[in-house]
Design a protein that fits this description.
The complex is a heterotrimer of chains A (229), B (262) and C (141).
Chain A: H1 2-14, H2 17-23, E1 31-34, E2 40-41, H3 49-52, H4 55-67, E3 84-88, E4 92-96, E5 104-107, E6 126-132, E7 135-141, E8 162-170, E9 175-183, E10 192-200, H5 215-223
Parallel strand pairs in A: 5-6
Antiparallel strand pairs in A: 1-3, 1-10, 2-10, 3-4, 4-5, 6-7, 7-8, 8-9, 9-10
Helix pairs in contact in A: 4-5
Chain B: H1 3-22, E1 45-49, H2 57-61, H3 71-85, H4 104-109, E2 114-118, E3 122-127, E4 133-136, E5 157-163, E6 166-172, E7 186-188, E8 192-194, E9 199-208, E10 211-219, E11 228-236
Parallel strand pairs in B: 4-5
Antiparallel strand pairs in B: 1-2, 1-11, 2-3, 3-4, 5-6, 6-9, 7-8, 9-10, 10-11
Chain C: H1 9-18, E1 39-49, E2 56-61, E3 73-78, H2 82-87, E4 100-107, E5 114-121, E6 127-129
Parallel strand pairs in C: 3-5
Antiparallel strand pairs in C: 1-2, 1-4, 2-3, 4-5, 5-6
The chains are: A alpha+beta (229), B alpha+beta (262), C mainly beta (141).
Chain lengths: 229, 262, 141
Amino acid sequence: MRTATVILAAVVAASSPSWVRAQAPRPDFSGYWELRVDSFHVPRAALTAQAAGRLDEQAARDADALARCVPIGMPAVMDDRAPIDVRHAPTVMGIVAPSPSSTRHIYTDGRPHPDEDELEGTTNGHSSGRWEGDVLVVDTVGFSERGVTRVPGGGFRTPRSRLVERYRLLENGRRLSVVFTWTDPGVFQAPHTYEFRYYRAARPREPRLTNCIPDQERTRFLTGRPEAK
Amino acid sequence: MTPASRRLVFAATLAAVAAALGAAPAGAQQPSAAPTLPALPSLSGLWLVQDPGSNNWSAWYNNVPAPALRPEIVTDNDAIAAREAAGEVVNRAPRRADCPVGNLPMMMASSPALDIVAARDEVLMAPESGRARFIYTDGRSHPNTKDPAYVPSGFGHSIGRWEGDTLVVDTIGFPPRVCDSRRPVMVTPGGGRAKETTRLVERFRLRDPDTLEVTFTWDDATVFLKPHTYSYTFKRVPFGNPVEGGGDEPPPREFITDKVAN
Amino acid sequence: MRAVVGGCAAALAVLGGLLWAPPAVAHHSFTMFEMEKDVTYRGVVTEYHWINPHVHITIEVKPGAGVDPATVGTWDIEGGSTTIMGRQGWTRSTFKPGDPITLVGHPLRNGDKGASLFYAIMPDGKRLYHDIARPKDDAGK
């Protein structure tokens, strides 16, 4: 009788909506995703006075990073000139950009960020993701100062920056929406949010990785695409 | 309740549990046409190659069954060894933007852990968070690697298919030369070569959830007298986070080693 | 100035896989070291440089009980890149100046006071290796 009671309790738990939803198939974000003219929804960021005073210095550092072909890092890898390659497995999502960069890994296996004293800053930071229904919410900390630090809309990433991204598929998987929210009290007066809506590339692409971004293409990493007013 | 009745209740309860697990509850989101994550053998993760006791990395790289090499390759290996013994250990090749990215034989044997993302149509494989090699598992064929439009990387072009629980990967299209003055053609473990005429077949299989076995077979009639096969064992790094290399800080003073040629 | 024969192969090996093109072949051309010889150094850290292309530890070995007289002096111990050593458990704070240290390395062939790091022996007896290479008695660890 006790056994049946236990099993009945399990049935009740199993049929609760949140538990069963956790078992539903998750969206697969795999694909080659490209940005087009209408992909950008980027408001201007409200910067602190301190950050506003450092913009020229940061731009010079970014230009130097491009010239030395160091990994560009976030957020530039998500705004690359050619399609990005997203490969989504059940416990990790990898993102490869054709420009010189480290492979980005977003872990969805429940792992926390490393302790602060163990966290070595990287150009892409350390990313952990969790599901909210069909939306993958990604939290990233642990950025270094290397690479291209410019943030769309204004400002730049620092080791103290935190980025939250929300990934979801639109139009039955034809488009990928990523909403970025940067928080860094030394840079932004308030959390700075913008959205990219990628298009799925029409045919399979084979990314050609490059060692360096050519001279004539570096400017866009420093000034960005046209931004929404 | 009689024992028979108890068994009936137990069986009915189990059936109800099974039904609950399989059913979509009222109010749950309906499956969309968008793709969903597949179930694949769990190759994803960080994997560290295991040295069986070679004592140093140089010995480890050649700690494979000896390949049967063509005489001219043996002669070239002797020349390389002589140059290294004479101190020619710094790469003095110009660092050009068009230098092939990556070195597959080196990457698969190196100390940085292998970071694998095994997704539906493609597997990414990178040394820590470095540049990844792509293994296409969507059924595509190799391109014409003799076409001038084909630009080789040091990873070659890889296509894979699952044979049960084994990922079988076929790679061709390595570059004829790389930007390294010491070894201008990529050298494979044991002293072979990986170049435009070389084919590599790899077999990836999980021996257990934390042990990955990879078998390599190199074939190239201009290098090997017969195909060269060896295996590595990798151990999973649980919840490992990849390390990002680089860093351009110059050493604060002179150390043993020469500066890297720029 | 020390011998300039370059052993930056380790870092180049990492670079070859990580980002830059020139593949790191000689990750591992350690011809300037006596790789077949393991020497134990017991001393104190005077400098700890967590840098690329090679991590460097400068140690001072003083005469004393249990100290090999041939190891007395100030030594430059060369490790691998921060990537390679980080994977083996090293961090930028594993050692600091003033820490006692015991390590095993392969000395320079030319007799200068330099060595290639094989492993450090931590206070709990655990070995912290430079890279994936292991001696036979510690294979698989």
